[in-house]
């Protein structure tokens, strides 16, 4: 199986590569469109600020490639947010895969949310073997509201989409690569999805 | 529900843990990677590595250590100590650190916080503040608490937040090493005046101290070193006890 982590200069991709290694698979980092298209599984990472990450994606010409991919694609954290229609952060147009606008948490809660929260209302093979209310690790100031494409919900002042799914595209707001054994289960599930 | 975090801190010198640790079952108690692995399996929510090396090779040694930790550990970790530039942070994040913590260099050059948050995002920038009370006023200190500044803790913390830090790690030098509990009054005030997470540090001696800092101190996370390294407190027991007191924890 060929696993490609899209390398467009946004964030901590080493950890994802290592997490995949711990599961017994190998992943390559790549920004080469041909190599990405040829992969069996694509991971679309991202940390940092949305508009500059989106700019980097555009600079590498991958903004048009990602929405056309046919194999399973997993966006993580900012990667997931960039797969949405729009994000308030830096007034940024996203890739429009998920039909939702990403907005900032209001100041009723501490922003960013940093730490371990629970996932519930699980609705996808991505969560095979994962119990309701298990804990996952998150660091974020913006969130996607709950929509039809929501496959998991977390609560932080309000319920929001902690994971999304449409066709071959998956997104997690949390970091599976940093979410201990629960995260590893989810990552493994993605790697074996058909 | 977002849980309160328990954060063991490891002091690192030249790639090795500094303070003695009492882990008889470890092959090499001086290896931070092994210790990190033990803590992550024991239920730690996050780890902090504080580098106190002062050698020429420190950057390279630290980067190498960070890479080895990232390879092995499946929970987030923060790296701090001597970080003073965008290049330092870039190298640590590239090697797999989730967050970095800056301290003295931010006091000397506050713009550094803006620059780091702008380039890497607030979520990975922790600002560590060491402070102690002088004539009843909390004053920020540098160099591990040795050098006093004129900065007021609460004013500096607010400025740190405004400049884009994602989190504050507050160590009370008055409490550090006393095992007499955290600086809950100052912590609660920080939580009240700021809207970013606050990590409490300095003073952990028993399980009730953690409960107190989460309830009275309103802390989002609590950091400790020796009580964990010497097994005076087991993380699992700690979390079970916190849960009994209705404090949300990951168990």
UniProtKB/TrEMBL annotation, chain A:
GO cellular component: cytoplasm
Active site, UniProt feature: 77 (nucleophile), 175, 177
Localization of this protein: Cytoplasm
Matching PROSITE patterns: GATASE_TYPE_1
Annotated Glutamine amidotransferase domain residues: 4-192
Recorded catalytic activity of this chain's protein: L-glutamine + H2O = L-glutamate + NH4(+); 5-[(5-phospho-1-deoxy-D-ribulos-1-ylimino)methylamino]-1-(5-phospho-beta-D-ribosyl)imidazole-4-carboxamide + L-glutamine = D-erythro-1-(imidazol-4-yl)glycerol 3-phosphate + 5-amino-1-(5-phospho-beta-D-ribosyl)imidazole-4-carboxamide + L-glutamate + H(+)
Residue ranges that the Swiss-Prot or TrEMBL entry lists as coiled coil: none
Gene Ontology annotations of biological process type: L-histidine biosynthetic process
Superkingdom: Bacteria
Pathway: Amino-acid biosynthesis; L-histidine biosynthesis; L-histidine from 5-phospho-alpha-D-ribose 1-diphosphate: step 5/9
Keywords for the protein's UniProt record, in alphabetical order: Amino-acid biosynthesis, Cytoplasm, Glutamine amidotransferase, Histidine biosynthesis, Hydrolase, Lyase
Short name of one Pfam family: GATase
Keyword Protein transport annotated: no
Tagged with keyword Amino-acid biosynthesis: yes
EC number of the protein: 4.3.2.10, 3.5.1.2
Alphabetized GO MF terms: glutaminase activity; imidazoleglycerol-phosphate synthase activity; lyase activity
Subunit structure: Heterodimer of HisH and HisF.
Function as written in the Swiss-Prot or TrEMBL entry: IGPS catalyzes the conversion of PRFAR and glutamine to IGP, AICAR and glutamate. The HisH subunit catalyzes the hydrolysis of glutamine to glutamate and ammonia as part of the synthesis of IGP and AICAR. The resulting ammonia molecule is channeled to the active site of HisF.
UniProt-recorded name of the protein: Imidazole glycerol phosphate synthase subunit HisH
UniProtKB/TrEMBL annotation, chain B:
Pfam families: His_biosynth
Compartments, record wording: Cytoplasm
A single Gene Ontology CC term: cytoplasm
SUPFAM superfamilies from the UniProt entry: Ribulose-phoshate binding barrel
Domain of life, source organism: Bacteria
Keyword Electron transport: no
Keyword terms of this UniProt record: Amino-acid biosynthesis, Cytoplasm, Histidine biosynthesis, Lyase
Pathway participation: Amino-acid biosynthesis; L-histidine biosynthesis; L-histidine from 5-phospho-alpha-D-ribose 1-diphosphate: step 5/9
EC code: 4.3.2.10
One Gene Ontology term of the molecular function aspect: imidazoleglycerol-phosphate synthase activity
Enzyme class: lyase
Active site per database record: 11, 130
Predominant localisation class: cytoplasm
Reaction catalysis annotation: 5-[(5-phospho-1-deoxy-D-ribulos-1-ylimino)methylamino]-1-(5-phospho-beta-D-ribosyl)imidazole-4-carboxamide + L-glutamine = D-erythro-1-(imidazol-4-yl)glycerol 3-phosphate + 5-amino-1-(5-phospho-beta-D-ribosyl)imidazole-4-carboxamide + L-glutamate + H(+)
Gene Ontology BP term (one): L-histidine biosynthetic process
Subunit architecture: Heterodimer of HisH and HisF.
Family stated for the protein in its record: Belongs to the HisA/HisF family.
Known function: IGPS catalyzes the conversion of PRFAR and glutamine to IGP, AICAR and glutamate. The HisF subunit catalyzes the cyclization activity that produces IGP and AICAR from PRFAR using the ammonia provided by the HisH subunit.
UniProt-recorded name of the protein: Imidazole glycerol phosphate synthase subunit HisF
Species of origin: Aquimarina algicola
